[in-house]
Amino acid sequence: MDQVTFRSDTVLSDVHLLLPNACHLMKRLNSVGQPVFTSKFRILRDCDGKESGGESPVLESTDASNVPCDEDGDLEVVRRPRCSSSNRDAVCPIILSQSAATLTDEEEDSDEEDGARDVIKIEHTMATPLEDVGKQIWRGAFLLADFILAHASMFKDATVLELGAGTGLSSIVMAMVAKMVYCTDVGDDLLSMCQRNVTLNKQHFEPQDADLDFCWTDAEIEDLHDNTTFVITADVCYDDDLTDALFRILYRLASNMRHPSTTYISIEKRLNFTLRHMDVSCEAYDHFRHCLDQLQKMTDGKMNFTVEPVKSSFPQFFQYERVEQLELWKVTAERL
């Protein structure tokens, strides 16, 4: 394999960079030659109404009388003896090539074992160009997943649409509590990865048979129109054009759905130093807030939108850094 190089436009998610005790296993190359990794994320069920995994570590004192020291008082470190001969088994290198995403029997058995331990397995890429960041996992998806699990009763028996699903993490978590989840994004390569992740986690729900061409059927369009009450999206507002497209789609969906809808948008306020301002700014976030403001002020005589922030005081079910820049917004749409 050629040497991996990082270009100036390469983006790496903090989830992959800072996740403690993580072992990212490279599995294959996708159809465009990008390395695909597999990561496992455990659902922390012992929240007891408060955040789990977000507390500071407890420092315990050690009895000095039990600590081995030399005659000068310095700590003695007992080193492991070196073996003259290695007992390790011989390991042969595996040549990775571009291949279709197919599950082996061994992987399926492993998935069933993981499901018993509340583990979600996600395939993803790392260090991608900006246009492929949807193939990575971002903290906004974890924040949204936390909210879903913390309010499972609210989404029970609901039909939910996710826009810009990426790897499908939020949709997979939503499928654990909702009646029907439509997981959408753009690009066959990304949708194929998302479909594989759904299959990898089928032990958590009953996946529907998906069209390999990722096309909508008339029955699905009718069901989406008649029954959808929630729309979710995570970390898709990193480009002004994408943000504008998102809000246009939200307006069109809300205007055509039979029932009033509620949209939850998670976003991370990313600070960047720009030469234009010669200062730290959040241009993508500022544009997102501008779009929220314009949506709430809209007076077209057809729709009324209410925008409000959601406090991040709900429990944390996944191990990640819930930084203060992570935000969740609620947009309620009603027809006049």
From TrEMBL:
One cellular component (GO) term of this entry: nucleus
BP GO annotations: methylation
Sorted UniProt keywords: Methyltransferase, S-adenosyl-L-methionine, Transferase
Taxonomy, superkingdom: Eukaryota
SUPFAM superfamilies to which the protein is assigned, alphabetical: S-adenosyl-L-methionine-dependent methyltransferases (SSF53335)
Residues spanning the membrane: none
Pfam families: Methyltransf_16 (PF10294)
GO MF: protein methyltransferase activity
Protein's UniProt keywords contain Nucleotide-binding: no
Name under which the protein is recorded: Methyltransferase-like protein 22
